[in-house]
Amino acid sequence: MLTLGTTALKVTEELGTGVHGGDVAASIERAIARGEHRDALARAARAYGPSLGRLCMAYVGSQAEAEELVQETLLSAYDAFPQFRGDGSVKAFLYGIARRTCARAVEKRARRDARLRLVTDEDADLGDAAGDAIARQEARRARAALSELRPTEREALLLRYEGELSFREVAEACGCDEPAARKRVSRAITRMRELMGEER
Q1: Count of H-run helices and E-run strands, the chain
Q2: Which residues fall within 8 angstroms of residue 122, CB to CB, at 6 or more apart?
Q3: Pick from 96, 79, 98, 100: which is nearest to 88 by CA?
């Protein structure tokens, strides 16, 4: 079974000697084209793992679950590498997979919670410092506001700011054109301001 821990150690010299941005993406695409999918996976994990983690965290709000979703995303990408033709960027390709993976996880959680009807009181943890409590409260407010957005607008917003994708890449990941991606992000920002207050 493929494991990212061992594969990541095989990242070649090219990535470790200061190759950045488009060069990293190009090196991943070359590895895919050569059929060197393990190498491509290692490069993708090294280059995009942290930002994919931030995106997944924004979706699910749990560090442990986010890490699992990143692993699932990268392994799904590994399986999909033979179908990658380079029509869009490899970054958008990866984030598109992450978007779908996170959406499935959120939907599964919602169904589970609806069935079990669990009631939790996250504010009951009195052992934390006041600053941590405030930060958690703000994070909960942000996630609650995100949950009020239309799914298409929430995804576009997260891909743009958590995933740090360009609008063109957001469009590729969401399967729409760039003007539509820009409108989704703009509407999401406007709605978030309404929900959280202009000072946010």
Answers
A1: 10, 0
A2: 136, 140
A3: 96
State the burial class of residue 34 (Cβ atoms within 10 Å of its Cβ: 0-12, 13-18, 19+): exposed
Tokens representing residue 47 in the block: 């280059």
C-alpha–C-alpha distance, residues 4 and 44, integer Å: 10
Q: What whole-number distance in Å separates Cα of residue 53 and Cα of residue 66? A: 6
Report which DSSP code applies to 81: G
Residue 56 CB-density burial (10 A; 0-12 exposed, 13-18 middle, 19+ buried): buried
Residue bearing tokens 């490899």: 90
Burial label, 165 (beta-carbon count in 10 A; 0-12, 13-18, 19+): buried
pLDDT in tens, 60-91: 888 889 999 999 999 999 999 999 988 889 99
> Among the listed ranges 6-10, 19-23, 138-142, 166-170, which one has the minimum average pLDDT value?
6-10
Q: Which of 139, 151, 158 is nearest to 196 (CA)?
A: 139
- Phi/psi region, residue 30 (left: phi>0; alpha: psi -120 to 50; beta: rest), is alpha
Q: How many CB atoms lie within 10 A of CB 30?
A: 15
Ordered structural domains, the chain, with CATH: 1-119 (1.10.1740.10), 128-200 (1.10.10.10)
